[in-house]
Amino acid sequence: MQPDYARYTEEQLLDVQRHIDRERYPERAEEIDSLLSTPETLAEARANQQKLDRERKAIQRQNRKIVLSILPIIIGALIGMADISPSFAGNALVIYHVPVHYFAALALVFIGTLSLQRFIAKGDSYLNP
User: Fold this and answer.
1) Looking at residue 90, what DSSP letter applies?
2) What 8-state DSSP symbol labels residue 5?
3) How far is 54 from 46, CA to CA, in rounded Å?
4) Residue 109, SS3 per DSSP
5) Per-residue pLDDT tens over the stretch 1-11
6) pTM of the entire predicted model
7) What is the pLDDT of residues 67-114, one digit of tens each?
8) What's the CA gap between 51 and 30, in Å, rounded?
């Protein structure tokens, strides 16, 4: 099975040209040389590179959105777990007051959950083609 060099980027073609075993694969080496000497092919290879760059940037943006959606949930959970000291009176758990940081934790978890839900509902994920 022979590689489809027409789909390669210019950088990939140059890399293959530098590393190909010309004695073992003379027809492939000739094809690569031909592709690199044709302006139309080089233009197509550059277009392939631009497409890959756009896809890579889109994936990075989506990963950032996911992390920024999950981060408030994690921080909120950590804040909510801080200073947990229940009081017991006999066999019953007695809560005398709710510390302010619990409300902050709840707010962060709520914001993160809404953000993540909105991201998923938009179908804005590369995971959902």
Assistant:
1) T
2) G
3) 12
4) helix
5) 788 888 888 88
6) 0.52
7) 887 888 788 777 766 655 555 555 555 555 556 667 777 788 888 888
8) 26
Whole-number Å distance between alpha carbons of 43 and 17: 17
24 torsion bin: left (phi>0), alpha (psi -120 to 50), beta (else)? alpha
Total Cβ atoms within 10 A of residue 26: 11
Taking alpha carbons only, the member of 94, 38, 76 closest to residue 30 is 38
Amino acid identity of residue 40, one-letter, is E
Query: Helices marked H in the chain — which ranges?
Result: 10-19, 26-37, 39-81, 100-121
The span from the CA of 13 to the CA of 29, in Å, is: 10
Nearest to 112 by CA among 80, 78, 74, 69: 69
Q: Give the separation between CA 34 and CA 42, rounded to whole angstroms.
A: 10
**Residue located via tokens 């709710």:** 98
